[in-house]
């Protein structure tokens, strides 16, 4: 007869009881059991927030490991990454996991953001959740931009030149921003150390802070129900175990995908950056910035006598401001009514971004 | 007969002077000039034959009104053309004007400005053009003030050239200074529009040398430019616009243009192909070629139609240049075959290594160091070996090849290891993936169990 049958707690039970007494785990589990996730046709989209969170965790774990060997100077950055992928045991895997998970994280975050947008989950009282989410997307992209330069390879170097040149186009403050980013007039060793500082200290701190607020707001307000969904009491998936375990299964699937990508398509290192060399052909920023860089290629030099690129940047800034302010602009959604205009605008934005990203890879010139 | 080049520059000197005088007279009669007192003249008398005294200094004529420019600027065709051409002329850039070459007094606003008493030299006869230009260009003291680095031996060299020697013998068809540089509107040689800019030289020489009718009496080939155009040098210069590639003057000289003799071809080619010439000079071929009167490098590589070299030139097969002299079974033939075989062996090892590295790179493996070594260390060794074939020593070639093969083999072993690791990673992926799938299944089973237990499975509702 087992100890359990005999009513004795056993080691695991004793440990659970010990922790429960000190941390109140039972209360948390009870809370999660009562918390429900709306169960409707759109449930699948709710998982992308969790996937983004999981990938952020992968980023933190692999990033910390990379810090053991990475050296943020122009003389050593490339060589240290080369050392990581060729000499350090499983270094190739850690570096590839970091790079692939960064890209998948950006993708998952974009999907999460647009799913929230199309489900109008930003409507009151979730405006702050939306704003913190937009801030997390911006921080994720900034993570990507700053991390891209760190291996100090040729493509990253010139893509950062292009990226900071685009930043310089922002009216009035552009040149100051570009100089702040570069630490000078050109991309140089100062830029590398600066980006390293952003990437491993400032951005993680900011991201973690905003993420905590974002998650607390979600816990406080629960998950949004789609407009028009029937509000049936008792119909919903318990957050625990239903949603959390499904999330865990999905995270494991994403981990398997990551490992497969890292094995069959390890993130390549390229050639070391040479600031005095010509820019290599087909330079482009990371795919999630190509909607911006590709669009600028179609903009005429002058629009009504104003620099075309500056006008385009202003249009993008207005687009960004629209997304930020969507909860406050979409009054129909605030009243719980469908808002087809905002859906149409969202579809136009997605189509534009997908088209530009596709063109950047299919027809870059 | 006027050369094709000079035909573009104008007619006879006498016709020019007569025409200029008439038109200048008309211009002056219309009141455009003020007569100056003839008694003030102190300029030396000079004829059309140039005096060897250089001009004293860039005249201030350019700054003041210049009767040459004033009158000739109003004239059409040949007499006015020099004024327009001088706008971009290097001499004008340095402050020189018409009178600095042609003499006369540009301050005098009538026809007497061109009086012999005022030092007017006019347009030089063709035979006198070298001395005419050399008056300044052969004077170190004078030229130093414009460009201390500018050579002043052009005239001296010219008289040693075939052109100069024939001119002295009364052949007025040969090229003089103006044939290549033009008479007016002379540009610095580094200006892309200059007829003596590197990429324009073949065309400039070809205006005479590729003209069968013009060259008929000299009984020399006129296909040099055509051949050069298709040569490796021509491709580099004319297609790739690499001005370091030799044009005609690169081998023949420019002012002292002369066809290199059979025994000095290697010296000419060796100015650029230093190692090839050095190895050839130490080879058994050198004395043999001298004995046979063969034109060294040109014997195997041709002269104007020098094709891009290939390994097929070496060896005992049909088409190899060695076969032209060395019969199969001869010592030379055997040596050529050994050298070719050694090179082919090295190329195979390098090719295999490159294939493996490319495959490893395509599989995402980091092999840039090995690719660099292959490209920047081993390939130069192949080039070195190819150069050393000019020594004609199969033992030396084999030793060099062995060194290169050792380095290539080391890279190949690294490539093999890397490839093996890439395949191992793919094979071993099955373990974490299997573990993940098992965990997913276990979690799913647990989920079903918990949902059944709590009766919270939404599908039951």
Note the main attributes of this structure.
heterodimer; A: 365 residues; mainly alpha; two-stranded antiparallel ribbon; 14 helices; 4 strands; 67% helix; globular; disordered N terminus; B: 461 residues; disordered C terminus
Poorly predicted regions of chain A? 1-6
Number of DSSP strands of chain A? 4
The largest sheet of chain A, given as strand count, sense and whether it forms a barrel, is: 2 strands, antiparallel
Give helix and strand order of chain A, one letter per element, not per position. Answer: HHEHHHHHHHEHHEEHHH
H/E topology pattern of chain B: HHHHHHHHHHHHHHHHHHHHHHHH
* SSE-based structural type of chain A: mainly alpha
Continuous helix count of chain B:
24
Percent strand of chain B = under 5%
Oligomeric state, counting identical vs distinct chains: heterodimer
Kindly report the spatial arrangement of strands forming the biggest sheet of chain A. Answer: 1-2
Gyration radius of chain B, rounded? 37 Å
Can you describe this structure?
The complex is a heterodimer of chains A (365) and B (461). Chain A is mainly α and 365 residues long. Helix content of chain A is 67%, strand content 2%. Chain A has helices at 10-23, 25-34, 47-67, 77-86, 91-118, 127-149, 154-167, 174-182, 189-221, 239-264, 290-297, 308-329, 331-334, 340-362; strands spanning 36-37, 237-238, 302-303, 306-307. In chain A, strands 1-2 form a two-stranded antiparallel ribbon. In chain A, strands 3-4 form a two-stranded antiparallel sheet. In chain A, strand 3 and strand 4 (306-307) form a beta hairpin. The radius of gyration of chain A is 23 Å and the shape is globular. Chain A starts with 9 loop residues before the first helix and ends with a helix. Chain B has 24 helices and no strands. The termini of chain B are far apart. Helix content of chain B is 55%, strand content 0%. In chain B, helix 12 packs antiparallel against helix 14, helix 21 (331-362) packs parallel to helix 23 and helix 22 (368-388) packs antiparallel against helix 23.
């Amino acid at each position: 007869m087992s100890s359990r049958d005999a009513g004795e707690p056993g080691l695991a039970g004793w440990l659970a009881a010990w922790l429960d007494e000190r941390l109140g785990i039972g209360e948390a589990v009870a809370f999660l059991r009562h918390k429900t996730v709306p169960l409707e046709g759109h449930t699948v989209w709710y998982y992308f927030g969790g996937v983004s969170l999981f990938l952020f965790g992968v980023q933190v774990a692999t990033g910390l490991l990379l810090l053991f060997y990475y050296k943020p100077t122009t003389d050593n950055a490339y060589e240290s990454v080369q050392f990581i992928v060729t000499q350090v045991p499983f270094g190739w895997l850690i570096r590839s996991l970091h790079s692939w998970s960064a890209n998948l994280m950006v993708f998952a975050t974009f999907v999460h953001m647009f799913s929230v947008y199309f489900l109008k989950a930003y409507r009151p009282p979730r405006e702050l959740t939306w704003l913190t989410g937009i801030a997390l997307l911006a921080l994720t992209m900034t993570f990507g931009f700053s991390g891209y330069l760190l291996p100090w390879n040729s493509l990253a170097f010139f893509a950062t030149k292009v990226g900071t040149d685009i930043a310089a186009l922002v009216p009035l403050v552009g040149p100051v921003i570009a100089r702040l980013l570069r630490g000078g007039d050109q991309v140089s060793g100062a830029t590398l150390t600066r980006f390293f500082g952003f990437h491993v200290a400032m951005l993680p701190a900011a991201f973690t802070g905003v993420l905590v607020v974002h998650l607390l707001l979600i816990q406080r307000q629960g998950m949004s129900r789609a407009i028009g969904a029937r509000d049936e009491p008792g119909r919903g998936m318990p957050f625990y175990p239903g949603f959390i375990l499904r999330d865990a299964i999905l995270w494991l699937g994403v981990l398997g995908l990551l490992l497969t990508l890292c094995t069959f398509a390890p993130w390549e290192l390229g050639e070391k950056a040479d600031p005095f060399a010509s820019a290599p052909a087909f330079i482009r920023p990371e795919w999630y910035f190509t909607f911006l860089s590709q669009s600028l290629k179609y903009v005429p030099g002058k629009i009504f006598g104003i620099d075309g690129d500056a006008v385009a940047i202003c249009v993008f800034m207005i687009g960004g401001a629209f997304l930020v302010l969507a909860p406050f602009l979409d009054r129909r959604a605030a009243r719980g009514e469908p808002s087809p205009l905002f859906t149409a605008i969202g579809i136009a934005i997605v189509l534009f971004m997908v088209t530009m990203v596709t063109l950047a890879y299919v027809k870059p010139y | 007969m006027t050369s094709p080049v000079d035909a573009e520059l104008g007619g006879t000197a006498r016709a020019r002077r007569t025409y200029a005088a008439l038109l200048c007279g008309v211009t002056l009669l219309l009141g455009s000039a003020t007569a100056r007192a003839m008694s003030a003249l102190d300029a030396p008398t000079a004829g059309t034959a140039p005096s060897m005294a250089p001009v004293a200094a860039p005249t201030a004529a350019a700054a003041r009104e210049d009767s040459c420019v004033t009158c000739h600027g109003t004239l059409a065709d040949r007499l006015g053309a020099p004024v327009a051409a001088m706008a971009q002329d290097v001499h004008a850039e340095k402050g020189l004007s018409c009178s600095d070459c042609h003499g006369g007094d540009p301050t005098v606003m009538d026809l007497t400005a061109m009086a012999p008493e005022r030092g007017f030299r006019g347009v030089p006869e063709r035979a006198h053009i070298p001395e005419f230009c050399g008056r300044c260009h052969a004077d170190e003291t004078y030229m130093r003030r414009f460009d201390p680095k500018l050579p002043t031996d052009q005239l001296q060299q010219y008289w040693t050239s075939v052109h100069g020697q024939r001119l002295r013998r009364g052949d007025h068809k040969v090229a003089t200074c103006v044939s290549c540089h033009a008479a007016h509107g002379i540009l610095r040689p580094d200006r892309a529009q200059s007829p003596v800019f590197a990429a324009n030289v073949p065309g400039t020489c070809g205006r005479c040398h590729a003209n069968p009718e013009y060259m008929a009496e000299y009984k020399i080939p006129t296909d040099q430019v055509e051949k050069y155009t298709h040569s490796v040098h021509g491709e580099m210069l004319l297609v790739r616009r690499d001005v370091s590639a030799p044009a005609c003057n690169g081998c023949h000289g420019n002012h002292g243009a002369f066809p290199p003799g059979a025994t000095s071809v290697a010296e000419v080619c060796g100015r650029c192909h230093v190692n090839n010439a050095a190895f050839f000079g130490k080879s058994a071929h050198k004395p043999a070629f001298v004995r046979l009167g063969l034109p060294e490098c040109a014997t195997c590589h041709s002269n104007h139609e020098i094709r891009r070299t290939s390994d097929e030139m070496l060896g005992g097969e049909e088409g190899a240049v060695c076969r032209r002299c060395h019969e199969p079974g001869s010592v030379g033939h055997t040596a050529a075959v050994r050298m070719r075989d050694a090179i082919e062996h090295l190329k195979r090892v390098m090719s295999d290594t490159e294939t493996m590295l490319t495959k490893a790179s395509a599989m995402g493996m980091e092999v840039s160091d090995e690719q660099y070594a292959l490209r920047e260390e081993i390939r130069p060794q192949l080039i070195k070996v190819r150069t050393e074939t000019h020594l004609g020593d199969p033992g030396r070639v084999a030793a060099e090849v062995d060194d290169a093969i050792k380095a290539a083999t080391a890279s190949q072993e690294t490539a093999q290891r890397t490839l093996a690791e890439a395949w191992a990673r793919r094979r071993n992926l099955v373990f974490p993936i299997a573990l993940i799938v098992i965990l997913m299944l276990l979690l799913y089973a647990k989920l079903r169990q918990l949902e059944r237990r709590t009766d919270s499975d939404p599908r039951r509702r």
